[in-house]
Amino acid sequence: MRIGPALWGVLLILAAASPASAQDSDAASEPKVHGFLLGALSRRTTGAQPARGNDGDPVLEEGRVRLDISGASGSGETFFLAKGDLLYDAVVKGSDVDLREAYAGHAKGALDFRLGRQIITWGVGDLFFINDVFPKDWESFFSGRPMEYLKLGVDALRGRYSSGVVNVDLVGVPFFTQDTLPSAERFVFPDPLSTVPTRHEVTPPARFSNTELALRLYRQIGGFDASLYAYRGYWRTPGVRLDNPVSPTRATFFFPELSVFGASGQRNISGGVLSLEAGHYDSRQDPRGDDPGIPNSQWRLLAGYQRQAWEDFTIGVQGYAEVMENHGAYLGSLPAGAARQDRIRAVVSIRLSQWLDYQTWKLSLFAAYSPTDEDYFLQPEVFHKVTDTFSATLGANVFGGHTDTTFFGEFEESDNVYAIVRFDF
Question: Is this model's pTM higher than 0.85 or not?
Answer without folding.
Answer: yes
